[in-house]
Design goal:
about 250 residues, globular, alpha/beta, about 15% strand, seven-stranded mixed β-sheet
């Protein structure tokens, strides 16, 4: 806990056997109260390793639900067990657990209800191994979203993010895609609900075992991101309505 806030780390996992132990070892257990790992029907021994490591809440999907579907299970479970702050940490070791304290203190002290760790703040993205096409696509999509949504984030595409219980209750994340665009939809929902998003710089680590979507899926994701931004603007202008921007209780 920090300031009486129950902190839960959620880990959406798929074939994370090779990197899970290294990630888990760096989680600051002095502030983290719960860890939830959701194994999205891996074909390796992710679930068995998670239980061997002593992770308290291990959930195994019987069939693959996708990256977004995995997160839905993560966040619903985190809310069920009474979490106040929920941090998504990928078990593939691409994002360092050593930032957890900084992220959680910002939130527990009431500065932000949402914090994301940006790989674009600073100059380390490409030197850290991010493919150049992904870097420039990231920057272009982020610029487009900032212009269309009238916001100012350095990156919409990081997988390292944290939310308060209040935020998760107020956005309709269960209506989001089960695919990778889920992440982007969540940030659009958060802005639509009127929240500010804090950012912290995060070192970039790309390596063979780290998960990464291929070029074809990256293109699909890019078009999805454009669609999310346009939907956000249309609903803000009251020209259309989309389920993802409804309050959960009215969906």
């Amino acid at each position: 806990m920090i300031n009486g806030k129950i902190i839960t780390v959620v880990m959406p996992a798929y074939n994370a056997e090779k990197t899970l132990e290294r990630t888990y070892a760096e989680i600051p257990m002095d502030i983290v109260d719960n860890i939830i790992l959701v194994d999205d029907a891996s074909i390796d021994s992710t679930t068995e390793l998670a239980r061997k490591l002593g992770i308290e809440h291990v959930i195994q999907h019987s069939k693959n639900k996708g990256y977004g579907g995995n997160q839905k299970t993560c966040y619903n479970k985190a809310l069920e067990i009474g979490s106040d702050i929920v941090v998504m940490l990928h078990p593939d070791y691409q994002y360092t657990p050593l930032l957890l304290q900084s992220v959680c203190y910002m939130m527990a002290n009431g500065l932000y209800e949402v914090v994301v760790a940006s790989r674009i703040l600073g100059r380390g993205a490409i030197s850290g191994g991010m493919p150049r096409y992904k870097y420039y696509a990231n920057r272009a999509l982020t610029l487009f979203q900032n212009l269309v949504m009238a916001q100012k984030l350095s990156e919409y595409h990081t997988g390292y993010r944290a939310f308060t219980r209040n935020v998760l209750h107020k956005i309709n994340f269960n209506e989001n895609s089960d695919d990778f665009v889920f992440d982007n939809q969540m940030l659009a929902q958060i802005f639509f609900a009127g929240y500010n998003i804090g950012e912290i710089s995060c070192p970039t680590k790309y390596f063979r075992e780290a998960s990464s979507i291929n070029f074809r899926r990256s293109v699909k994701y890019g078009f999805g991101v454009v669609g999310v931004a346009v939907a956000y603007r249309l609903q803000k202008m009251k020209l259309a309505k989309f389920k993802i921007f409804n309050h959960p209780k009215s969906s």
